[in-house]
Write a structure and sequence with these properties.
This protein has helices at about 10-20, 35-40, 45-55, 60-75, 80-85, 85-95, 105-120, 125-130, 135-140, 150-165, 180-190, 195-205, 210-225, 230. It is mostly helical and about 240 residues long.
């Protein structure tokens, strides 16, 4: 058991606020239209593309990329098999102005890797590829895709549980989705630089059953300009 970061009183106060504001969606924070959200949740290939490209650009822009990319390459090419063998065409589509992402080359490489993995492991069927009952198996399947690190694995796990309303055992082993929001709110409270390891411990303390969900709660606090100190000290 990792050494606790927060004392018992802090955990109690944060858990009380957490339960009162329990996140019930992951994608709901991205300001997407209902139609775009529904398409991403229905087209699992698009969903995986969105997970992969959600980095280094605003989330809303990243999650709109799959739709815009499909418009540029054509619906007939919206397949894992095409992605697997057309990395240069993906690069051209992403970098054509207005560019769809800040890092076109990396995204093209990662999306091609997605296509290759789906083609090899699931005959191109994205829904089949992510259909599993455990967080551990989901992580194992995703980890072979370029650019699919722990943050993205846990993002997809949250989408499966919160947005798709599907069961995924082993979410107690999920990790904090460490980013600038978590770093800022935790560093402010701890008066020292926060790391992913620190964020994992704090999120485990707040929600031992699903630490990744606690990360989305902390994101929202930071976006709302709330601080951990203000919540913890409100009843002292």
């Amino acid at each position: 058991m990792p050494t606790p970061i927060l004392d018992d009183y802090a955990v109690t106060m944060l858990q009380h606020d957490y339960q009162a504001n329990l996140p019930d969606t992951f994608m709901g924070d991205f300001d997407l239209s209902p139609a775009d959200s529904e398409w991403l949740l229905t087209d699992k290939f698009a969903l995986l593309c969105g997970v992969i490209v959600d980095q280094s650009v605003p989330a809303n822009r990243a999650w709109q990329l799959p739709k815009r990319l499909r418009e540029r390459i054509g619906k007939q090419n919206w397949t894992a098999a095409w992605f697997a063998t057309h990395q240069s065409e993906l690069l051209t589509a992403i970098e054509t102005k207005p560019a769809l992402h800040r890092f076109p080359k990396t995204m093209a490489q990662n999306l091609a890797s997605l296509g290759q993995t789906l083609d090899r492991e699931a005959n191109g069927d994205a829904e089949k590829f992510i259909s599993t009952t455990t967080h551990e198996e989901l992580e194992a399947r995703l980890s072979v895709i370029h650019g699919m690190g722990p943050k993205k694995v846990n993002a997809l796990a949250l989408i499966i549980v919160l947005d798709l309303r599907q069961s995924l055992m082993g979410m107690d082993k999920s990790k904090a989705l460490f980013d600038v929001h978590l770093a800022r709110i935790l560093s402010d409270y701890l008066h020292r630089p926060a790391t992913a390891a620190i964020a994992n411990v704090v999120c485990q303390q707040i929600d031992p059953a699903m630490p990744a969900r606690a990360a989305t709660y902390l994101w929202r606090l930071d976006r709302q300009h709330r601080t951990l100190a203000s919540i913890i000290m409100q009843s002292r």
